[in-house]
Amino acid sequence: MIAAAHLRIARPTLSLAAAERFWTAGLGLDVLFRKDDLLMVGAPGAAWHLELVASDVAPAPTAEDLLVLYLDGPVDDALSTRLTAAGGRRTPQGDYWDRWGVTFTDPDGYRLVLSTRGWSN
C-alpha cells in the first residue's frame, strides 16, 4: 500500500515567483495548481509533486535538505544552464553527490540533486 502512495513535498518560499521560475523554467516542471499563496509543481503523471507555500518567515534549509531526482543518465548541459538562468546556483554537495550528480540551490536555499544514477543503484 505505501509503495503505491503518492508523495507531496511542501516547502515555504519567500517568493512564489522566484520559486516558480526555478522549478518550471529551470527544471521544466509544470504548474499543477495555483491558488493565492500556494503553488504546486510537478511532472504530469508522476507520483509526486512539490507544494510551494508563500511565507513571511525565511526558510532555513540545511545542506542535508535534498530533493534528489534520479535521471539514470548524464545531466544535460542545457538543463544546468536553464537552472542557473532561472535563479539556481550550482553547489558542491560532498564527495558522493558530486561524483554521482550535480547539485543546485534554489532561490530559498533548498538543494536539488540531479543524480546520474538510476533509482535502483
From TrEMBL:
Show where the YycE-like N-terminal domain sits.
7-52
Boundaries of each YycE-like C-terminal domain copy? 65-114
Pfam families hit by this protein: YycE-like_C (PF22659), YycE-like_N (PF22658)
The residue ranges crossing the membrane are none
Domain of life per record: Bacteria
Entries under InterPro entries matching the protein: Glyas_Bleomycin-R_OHBP_Dase (IPR029068), YycE-like_C (IPR058997), YycE-like_N (IPR058998)
What CDD domains does its record include? VOC
According to UniProt, the name of this protein is Catechol 2,3-dioxygenase-like lactoylglutathione lyase family enzyme
